[in-house]
Design a protein that fits this description.
alpha+beta, Yope Regulator, Chain: A, 2 helices
Length: 114
């Protein structure tokens, strides 16, 4: 069940750095053609035709889920599982330094894949 929640409440009690990282991702993705951003009580979803990025603010990190054509088995990926003809990938980041150009490229590829 999807229950809408105030975006700010997702970051209550969490390190400010997580909010800064999220804001940086949002600024990067928000202007891409046809992107819709919505949130539930546990996550923020980025949609372009289909959901291409889900961010879950956890107590010490942001859990990012996005898609690729190929399985990603090396760090920083901690999980990569097949879902139909694509792979769901998971990364956890907690600092701005971890939001690398390579990670931004993976997010963009997920957007273009769907």
């Amino acid at each position: 069940m999807c229950i809408k929640a105030d975006l700010n409440t997702l970051f209550d009690g969490k390190p400010k750095e997580l909010e800064f990282v999220f804001d940086k991702i949002l600024a990067e993705v928000y202007d891409w053609d046809g992107v819709i951003v919505s949130n539930t009580k546990n996550a923020i979803m980025f949609v372009h035709k289909q959901t291409f990025l889900i961010i879950r603010p956890m107590s010490k990190f942001l859990d990012l889920k996005f898609y690729s054509k190929e399985q990603q088995l090396c760090p920083p990926f901690f999980k990569s599982t097949q879902a139909s003809k694509k792979f769901e990938n998971r990364i956890r980041i907690s600092t701005l330094e971890e939001l690398t150009p390579t990670l931004k490229k993976f997010i963009r590829q997920s957007y273009e894949l769907l």
